[in-house]
Amino acid sequence: MAVVIAIDAGTTGVRSLAVDQRGLVVGSRYRELAQHYPRPGWVEHDPIEIWEAVRATLNELLATLDEPVAAIGITNQRETVVAWNRRTGEPYHRAIVWQDRRTAERCDELVAGGHLPMVRATTGLVLDPYFSGTKAEWLLRHGGVPVSDDLVIGTIDAWLIWHLSGGEVLATDPSNASRTLLYDINAMAWSDELCSLLSVPRSALPDVRPSSGRFALTSERCGVRGGIPVSGVAGDQQAALFGQACFTPGMTKNTYGTGSFVLMNIGGAVPPPTEGMLTSVAWQLADGATTYALEGAIFVTGAAIQWLRDELQIIGSSPEIGPLAASVPDTGGVYVVPAFAGLGSPWWDPYARGTIVGITRGTNRAHLARAVVEAMAYQSRDVVEAMTTASGRSVAALRVDGGASVMDLLMQLQADQLGVTVSRPRVQETTAVGAAYLAGLAEGVWGSTDEIAANWQLDASFTPVDDRSAADVSYAGWRRAVERSMAWEAPSAPS
Which runs of E-coded beta strand occur in 330-443? Predict the structure, then answer.
């Protein structure tokens, strides 16, 4: 029985997984990535380290497999941008990570210049430093990146496809392209108007190909086994939507990772711009059929658990957060707003900063841990309520995945806050599985999305309490805490 390998190049690490025809993970290898913070609000990765982690985990995994490998799928942290030399393969600068806020001032300038309506209508996005376009512009203006015929600017998927193909193929897919501020989601093509606005050479951008379809064959020149089709690509959140088998409009998922991302399948038509929400390409299949998603992006959820572990040392390891949070019945009135990188949906405030309110002399580490867990549920409610208003569709149920979704406490809190059933699948690696499904669909491992949907299996469901009054009271306190975090940081001139 053939397997499909998924390369999951995330924010904190790289994982290569083998997925069988039942959609089950049958092998995995992982490498953590170093995080670089050259200035407050700046976040960078070493592109070479990302590639080396991919190569190492892929080779280690291949060495353990007896089954033939039908294809490779790639899923990746979105919006993170790399500039490199297509002749030498050397990056010109560290990758600027999606969490990075250095272009907030530039986004303000673009809004003041009246460009937001055009950007919203063309891209489905807002003018925020979260997205790739202003990061690419910064690299060209301030990062020492030269404009030449050898220049390539791409997201992490394009960087990996280029390496896996031995430098032969420069390509991305619409799900990633639609997160760059440079892609027209109506025309399904790079926008010359936006490239001109941000001074990004159109010639430096990769080709855009369907998310499911053959991109390249692996080349032995890159140091891995040659001849394996690379046949599926999607940004991590769209891959998770696919992996959760959310193939019907209205189906919704939330991934609790470094950040949290709520996506709703909205079908094959681009909706008008909706306040507080993003519209992205969910995926494009080999026949050209395109599905769009309405998205709410929360920048910090799991990253707040890392903050408790690494900076405050309240916990020794991430799995300790659940039992510690559950050791107290409530937070004692404490709220943690983890706006470490500003606030995303539905607020879009790059100048918000992290806030802890409600501390008393009796506040202890368990209260802070629970407040961080509750913040995940509150932020997701912020997004779902805005999404319901924007789409005119109520969320009847929520499928969940990501590292923090293993916490029963969080899942029950989420169900109570939303008033809907929360369903957790048996296979938690839905992002990687989604990439594998896209690749395997292209190579005939799965014959249809119906066959993929049949693989989805329930692990646990969480039903909301009948009386939501207590949930509404605690949520009202959260909204007050959010107000205190907003517009905290004063704008400063870019450098």
Answer: 335-337, 355-357, 397-401, 421-425
